[in-house]
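Annex B. Sample input.
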Amino acid sequence: MKIQIESEIGNHIRLSGKEYSFFAGNNYLGLANHPEVKIAAKNAIDTYGLNFAASRHTTGTSDIHLELEKELSLFKNEDDAIVFASGYMGNGILLQVLKDQYTTVFADEISHPSILEGIPHDIKKIHFFRHSDIQHLEDLLILHRNHAALIISEGVFALTGEISPIDEIYALSKTYNALLIVDDAHATGVIGESGRGTPEYFKLQDTSGMFQTETMSKALGVYGGFISSNQEIINLIRERSSTCLGSTSLPPPIVSAACASVRIVRQQPELRPVLYKKAKEIRRGIMELGYQTNQAPTPIIPVFFESSSQARNLSLYLEQNGIIAPSISYPVKMDKFIVRITVSVNHTPDQIAELLETLKKWKSQNGTKPN
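Annex B, continued. Sample output.
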């Protein structure tokens, strides 16, 4: 399904002049249209215009870039941070600057395309472990234990909402002297006591040999990628990353909006429990109706099907009944087809009830009784 949006992204959107409940996208904390975030963007246009028109390496660094990096490092409780044009770039940036420390990559078999495309072209030894299968990962590490290893996985998987067993993967990385990169695009701002992502969720803060790549375009509601880490790694990125050195810096309204967004995440921790409660209600309702999903405590709630036609039919039925939840055709290795439902802190009880009632009706009309 390809949609053309005619409104801001909230718990409702407008398409072709009609309003829909929006259970899609990644605006988990509702910050993409938060008044403070929008005001910050507007004020930045008045002060700085629309573009700094240069790379950070030349004349494209502004005071607000430095402010944002300071805000992010405070949020992450790290020495420093660096921002760049897109979260998609983060895995490639980190894999490139760490390249002299590994010869072999071990990746989850349903890795996001940004992971696969980010592996440097001269790294030829790439091994895929079965999805979140710790024993298979260890078997591969033992088989290739004479190689300098780097393990990479999403922290929260984009399609299924599952939390990767990063605690167990990190333990293996220490046992086999491997580096670990966690792509935390869908975890940042969402999981962990302070919203710092998967390592915090597993109480693995301040550990050596583990790095995160992150985005501001999901829970933070804005745009751009960032890496926050110790000073040595951030300096290495600033000195060696051709992507960072050659890219035009993030535009003023995005940078100022991101500053406001990060402050909200830090100052309003109550947003996350609200999000968890709504996600739990929807997931429980879906399971009670007899649909196949998982029990991950995240705002990504997949509905699994054996055929693509079933997933498409449900998505179309929801759309016909005023609800947007897309069936997913995505370049990731999956053995099932998905209608990906996502929840935001802004979804109302009435919207949630309407979604579950519509799912119940579709099940009834397709000849399968709810459990």
